[in-house]
Design a protein that fits this description.
The chain contains ten helices and no strands. By secondary structure, it is an all-alpha fold. The protein is globular.
Length: about 180
């Protein structure tokens, strides 16, 4: 059953309307082919393991309970405004060319009014920020990274509360059968 949106005139952020399960709208391979890979390619990242890590992150976060997500988490990657600000202030501030590319993924007017809202309704932008959460940690992700290794990287490196590598693997099996 799909959740019905609450329509109010005071809602300022699209992510406040209803929880969105992207996998209910699009198959995992479709998300990979049409959003994740093109976004990473645009950013200059050509690593199949990173694509799989981001897909696994997306599908795992969608299956985590609200108690396992960070408070104030926004969008399908459950990124908080604080994490978003940290990426911009402490990672992208040091890389102006990359910052320009990431900013290019954002809406022209909405980003200026409420940059955090982009995490809720702009999947390419949210994917870029999720990638940057991993990238700034300089993790050992390579073409030889297998799914259990990626699950452990997610468990240790992506913000959540109590998610386990088994959650990642379980979500992967359910979505990518």
């Amino acid at each position: 059953m799909i959740a019905q949106p609450r329509v109010t005139s005071t809602t300022s952020n699209p992510q406040d309307l209803f929880p969105l399960n992207l996998l209910a709208l699009s198959a995992a391979d479709n998300l990979l082919e049409n959003i994740l890979r093109p976004t990473l390619t645009y950013l200059g990242v050509t690593c199949a393991a990173m694509e799989q890590l981001l897909l696994g992150t997306l599908i795992t976060i969608a299956r985590l309970s609200a108690l396992q997500r960070s408070e104030q988490a926004i969008g399908p990657y459950a990124i908080t405004p604080q994490q978003h600000t940290e990426i911009w202030d402490h990672h992208l501030a040091q890389q102006p060319e990359l910052a320009s590319k990431v900013r290019g993924l954002a809406s022209q007017h909405c980003f200026l009014q409420n940059p955090h809202a982009e995490l809720g309704y702009n999947l390419a932008y949210a994917t870029a920020i999720a990638w940057l959460i991993y990238d700034r940690q300089q993790l050992p992700i390579s073409v030889s990274s297998d799914l259990p290794s990626l699950a452990r990287i997610w468990e240790r490196s992506y913000p959540h509360k109590g998610g386990r590598a088994q959650d990642f693997l379980r979500a992967w099996r359910a979505a990518c059968k």
